[in-house]
Amino acid sequence: MAEIVLSHIKKVYPNETKKKGLFGKKKVKERKTNLQVTEEGVLAVQDFNLTVHDQEFVVFVGPSGCGKSTTLRMIAGLEEITSGDLTIDGVRMNDVAPKDRDIAMVFQSYALYPNMSVYENMAFTLKLKKVPKDEIDRKVRAAAETLGITQYLDRKPKALSGGQRQRVAIGRAIVRDPKVFLMDEPLSNLDAKLRNQMRAELIKLRHEINGTFIYVTHDQTEAMTLGDRIVIMKDGVVQQIGTPQEVFNHPANIFVAGFIGMPQMNFFDATLARFDNEFHAETAHFDIPLSPSVCRRLDETIDPASRVEVTVGVRPEQIQLCSADDLGALTGRIEVTELMGSTVHVHVSTPDASFVLVLPAGDLESEGGTLATGDEVHFKFEPEAVHIFDRETGVALS
After folding, report:
1. Of these four, 27, 31, 135, 334, which has the most CB atoms within 10 Å of its CB?
2. Would strands 330-339 and 343-349 be described as parallel, antiparallel, or unpaired?
3. What is the 3 state secondary structure string of the chain?
4. For the domain with range 4-102+178-258, which CATH number is right: 3.40.50.300, 1.20.1540.10, 2.30.42.10, 3.40.50.720?
5. Topology classification of domain 263-390
6. Model pLDDT for residues 211-227, shown as the tens digit of each residue
7. What is the gyration radius of the CA atoms in the chain, in angstroms?
8. Sign of CA dihedral 226, 229, 232, 238
9. How far is residue 24's CA from residue 195's CA, in Å, rounded to a whole number?
């Protein structure tokens, strides 16, 4: 397949657009954006660097407007690269036409021809390339078998469900046998159940065809389950690149910590203080001793004599109910409980912060019955659960 290298890729859009007003006069309309604006224009993607290895599945994830789809379109050749270099298998592609990049793209909108059958939609690009009919038939039927749509080959797209149409769009990409598959939020138009099914299908598919995939989504669940590596973006800037487990366990900054994980990580402000060989996170009502491993990491970055203002993060799954006498126990009052089946999301307020705890449903059973809104509870953080971030920069210190 292919190795893709993006080196210092940058995309700038003009920050003004001209429209004709009344009597042919030109109006100047500024682009509204949260992205950085320079004299050149709006910086949609800044200094993007990434190597996608052969047969790797890489996911670009981030909120709307972060530049992930723009980056994908630059790889496809649908957007011009302002500066930087894009190479595929060592060949520079900046000025190569999209049709000559040997890339297949699957769009959010399916983009099927309504007047053609499923078979004709999947065979169309091969016919344009004048591939022999018997080879076209073999490839189309093999892709249809892989995707489970053989029985729909004679139907028109309007007779298919959303999931079936998406399979056809993916099949149309597969038959081309491209070097790279680019997917731009292909599951976002599906309902939750169908999205889960298609996600599982994609996981099986990528192992069957051994392709190089770049996948764009705003859904962190898709990113965590599909990707060999995840590229997390915000405002056109890469925040972190790593495996799903790396970005979950070791977020590079507050944005990544809050974006990855559902429910999102709990945050509260504290002062980092050192006592002998230990660090503590202190608030007006908390004194939380940090684990030895966290202390060792902090010891490399924190001045021993200083008291540093930090933001502390802890994931909801890494908070446990405990007794009032336990070391590091915090006390709060239940505001809301949300039963999610086998687990329950418990919203607890304390004098210094609010927390969400994800607990097994049975953990809310007490001697007097089920704990409910207004009850006092005691809880503590798992030893390795605490993440420390610089309050000003948001960068992880631990």
Report:
1. 334
2. antiparallel
3. CCCEEEEEEEEEECCEEEEECHHHCEEEEECCCCCCECCCCEEEEEEEEEEECCCCEEEEECCCCCCHHHHHHHHHCCCCCCEEEEEECCEECCCCCHHHCCEEEECCCCCCCCCCCHHHHHHHHHHHCCCCHHHHHHHHHHHHHHHCCHHHCCCCHHHCCHHHHHHHHHHHHHCCCCCEEEEECCCCCCCHHHHHHHHHHHHHHHHHHCCEEEEEECCHHHHHHHCCEEEEEECCEEEEEECHHHHHHCCCEHHHHHHCCCCCCEEEEEEEEEECCEEEEECCCCEEECCHHHHHHHHCCCCCCCCEEEEEEECHHHEEECCCCCCCCEEEEEEEEEECCCEEEEEEECCCCEEEEEEEHHHHEECCEECCCCCEEEEEECCCCCEEEECCCCEECC
4. 3.40.50.300
5. OB fold (Dihydrolipoamide Acetyltransferase, E2P) (2.40.50)
6. 899 999 999 999 999 99
7. 26
8. negative
9. 48
Question: Which structure tokens are listed for 94?
Answer: 């900046």
What lies within 8 Å, CB to CB, of 319 at 6+ separation is: 266, 355, 357, 358, 379, 380, 381, 382, 385
Distances (CA, A) of 247 to 80, 109, 200, 223, 396: 30, 30, 22, 11, 12
Could you tell me the two tokens for 74?
């630059």
Domain segments of the chain as ranges? 4-102+178-258, 263-390
- Among the residue ranges 25-29, 82-86, 154-158, 382-386, the one predicted with the least confidence is 25-29
Span 243-287, pLDDT tens digits = 999 999 999 999 999 999 989 999 999 999 888 778 888 998 888
Using pLDDT thresholds of 50, 70 and 90, give the confidence band for residue 32.
very low
pLDDT tens across 345-370, in order?
999 999 999 999 999 887 777 545 57
Tens of pLDDT, residue by residue over 49-93, are 999 999 999 999 999 889 999 999 999 999 999 999 999 999 999
